[in-house]
Inverse folding.
């Protein structure tokens, strides 16, 4: 049996928090200045702030990386003995607060899920929890997300809520479209498409790099065209399978699902062995797994997954942030 012993470098964690704060504070200050001078709902203020500040592209990378860092450090923190947790608790809390600010700075349902789901899975993977506690955590998480879902829905479709006799009806329609719209759209559009992208979806990341270097426009758009559902609602997501079907057809989509299954299996096996790096990957992979009903979040987010992999290796393998990871075999 493998035992992973983790030690965190307090000085390096303190330095990391200082660096992140140096980057985050000016951005938060700009947000507050803009929000103070504007008016509107929480959603409209946050989205308009992001659009009007014209922040550099590096801000998007910072937002994501700080989220990945917080989850990777939380996993290491939760794997420590309680005595060892005391000295670094304040640094972990600071990192999580910065991550939460990064998540809500651009409020989207998928963006919040990309933080919430791995956070829940990281906690469950590192704690001994009863079925009752799992149900409790799941219930609280769903209620919390539904609250966020309502706030975002109200911000995006305020004109529908304004004229509707019942806000619950609008919200239930939104939830229904969000949960089943992709499946219905896929069933409808699968008949109409020839699926001859010839790899433009799968290799989009590399084509986008080519476009950036040579100023061309060969990469396809990630955002699909909208389609009208039978209830009159519109959607532009078509489940996990559509992304691969458009490239090379059914067999390729099945192979893609098989490969994805192997990746999840490897991370799950590592998580069961309490491998902190594999536990981190297992937690992060919970998001695209759950979102298969909605759209592909694997290859379509390849640049994001490269960042996730790099953060994991940096935290757990570089020995700069977590200074010791000793394996001991117990007989």
């Amino acid at each position: 049996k493998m035992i992973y012993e983790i030690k965190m470098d307090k000085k390096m964690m303190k330095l990391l928090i200082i660096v992140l704060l140096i980057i985050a504070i000016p951005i938060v200050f700009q947000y507050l200045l803009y929000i103070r001078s504007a008016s509107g709902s929480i959603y409209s203020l946050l989205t308009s702030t992001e659009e009007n500040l014209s922040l550099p592209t590096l801000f998007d990378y910072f937002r994501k990386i700080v989220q990945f860092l917080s989850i990777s450090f939380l996993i290491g923190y939760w794997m420590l003995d309680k005595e060892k947790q005391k000295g670094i608790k304040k640094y972990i809390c600071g990192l999580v607060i910065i991550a939460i600010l990064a998540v809500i700075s651009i409020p989207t349902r998928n963006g919040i899920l990309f933080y919430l789901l791995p956070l829940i899975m990281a906690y469950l993977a590192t704690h001994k929890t009863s079925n009752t506690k799992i149900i409790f955590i799941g219930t609280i998480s769903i209620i919390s997300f539904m609250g966020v879902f309502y706030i975002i829905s109200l911000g995006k479709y305020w004109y529908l809520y304004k004229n509707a006799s019942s806000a619950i009806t609008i919200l239930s329609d939104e939830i229904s479209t969000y949960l089943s719209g992709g499946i219905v759209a896929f069933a409808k559009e699968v008949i109409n498409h020839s699926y001859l992208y010839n790899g433009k979806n799968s290799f989009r990341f590399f084509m986008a790099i080519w476009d950036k270097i040579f100023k061309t426009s060969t990469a396809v758009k990630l955002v699909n065209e909208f389609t009208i559902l039978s209830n009159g609602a519109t959607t532009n997501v078509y489940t996990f399978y559509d992304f691969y079907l458009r490239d090379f057809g059914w067999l390729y989509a099945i192979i893609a699902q098989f490969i994805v299954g192997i990746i999840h299996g490897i991370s799950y096996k590592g998580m069961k062995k309490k491998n902190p790096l594999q536990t981190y990957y297992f937690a992060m992979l919970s998001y695209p797994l759950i979102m298969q009903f909605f759209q592909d979040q694997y290859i379509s987010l390849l640049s994001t997954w490269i960042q996730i992999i790099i953060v994991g290796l940096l935290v757990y393998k570089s020995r700069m942030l977590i200074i010791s990871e000793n394996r001991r075999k117990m007989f």
